[in-house]
């Protein structure tokens, strides 16, 4: 199946919202532009074969990194703005004036290159000589003095060469092509901004809802809290949109993300977590959570197919026109990082707004014993440990904080107990706090009476 | 004495999310004793070798660092004939916040970047400084001879 067709089908089938579909890259329109451009060029005697040969020659020169003084022609995407690095991010509504230029020696009428075959050179010379008579026009460049010539930089606008005329081939379909593409890309960017805002509101709302449903102070049942906690734990471990392990880090493509999401959903079902969420409000909230994730997935997929469409259409542009634009294009227009950017921003929100409503034990474990940080002690360096580990460190004369190596362990005392964190832990993890409290007391007994204490009350 | 939560958690994570090129499996009858293997890092003379180590967590771990030793013979300026390793984080720079995982990563990095200025095996370090090419060649030969799986 041809890509254009597949693209259209995907846009239709995937259930994207209508305004997304409208903003998609208009692959078939752009293809028509290319066809018109090919005709324009053919009328001028510049068939793709000829142009490709010329550009191959230019490329060879660039590759060899030699002076580019005898490049026979150039295809510049935007003459005026083309001053290299400073124009990395063009305005998205910028008009494109692509220019096809080649150089002719004024005195001899020779085309500025000895590396072309006779036929091609002849063709181009004819074109140049027809100046003014046909639709080829000659731009007279002022004669620069030697010092005016900038040190050869391949990106510097229309280069001026002593004794040469710059011949510009006027084309219209290419301007149309690039203006259209640029407008569509900026449209996609706007769409992304809108979507981000919309989802932001949605996530915030759901976050508030989950917070309310799981608030122990509002007598949410322990069972409900634990169920939500487990769902979110599975969610984080599933690493749907981003990997979190050493081996798998960074963003996932839509296919991987869809797979992971599927797996997440089936684990939640297998564990019977849905059934444990009693009450319609909880179930509704879970459905919304799933819905938000599906939307992120759709955003990813939409971004991916549009990016592919853009790559394909540029490839087609080059193949059919022979103008070799692909190597320079990415610097001119950037594809908006639709998928990754949106997914990243929204995932961050899901974490801060929704997942954080239900604290996870792992986020409150002591870096030393990896058990819950009970009772929590905050050192001067702001690092927190459980009181048991602090005692162990102090008895072992470990004066420095294990995390930052500041000398903050030695002077910690009862003033360092973090009562606020203690209240929080008690509220969210009453079971774990009770267990750790028992353990701490037991270990204090061991400290006092020695290992025999262990034998007497093996409560662990 | 029951196994501390920390050791259980570390072991679980090592099993669930293994580090690339590293394995650490506790003995069934002594959960403080691990069989470790480290793959020689690419672009090092240890590339292609699989090195066996033993790792033991002392009673007061993590107050004191794990005890680790190479079992496979290896030619390296910071590892001596008995397989003992000269690595700051295993000695003065140990911190109870470090873990088995981080330590094994440090050892893997040490294989990729030998440091002959802080030697444990003096003769090897000497050779390394005088004739690096030759030393690397020897290390490669030893890998070939002793560390092939
Ligand atoms: Zn602790
Ligand atoms: Zn600290």
UniProtKB/TrEMBL annotation, chain A:
The SPX domain, residue ranges: 1-331
InterPro entries noted in UniProt: SPX_dom, Znf_C3HC4_RING-type, Znf_RING, Znf_RING/FYVE/PHD, Znf_RING_CS
Keywords of the record: Metal-binding, Zinc, Zinc-finger
SUPFAM superfamilies for the chain: RING/U-box
Keyword field contains Protease: no
GO molecular function: zinc ion binding
ATP-binding recorded as keyword: no
Ranges where the RING-type domain occurs: 366-405
Pfam family name, one: SPX
Protein's UniProt name: RING-14 protein-like protein
Native source organism of the sequence: Westerdykella ornata
From TrEMBL, chain B:
Principal EC category: transferase
Keyword flag rRNA processing: no
Keyword Nucleotide-binding assigned: yes
Transmembrane segment boundaries: none
GO terms for MF: ATP binding; ubiquitin conjugating enzyme activity
EC number: 2.3.2.23
Family label: Belongs to the ubiquitin-conjugating enzyme family.
Name used for this protein in its record: E2 ubiquitin-conjugating enzyme
Source organism (scientific name): Westerdykella ornata
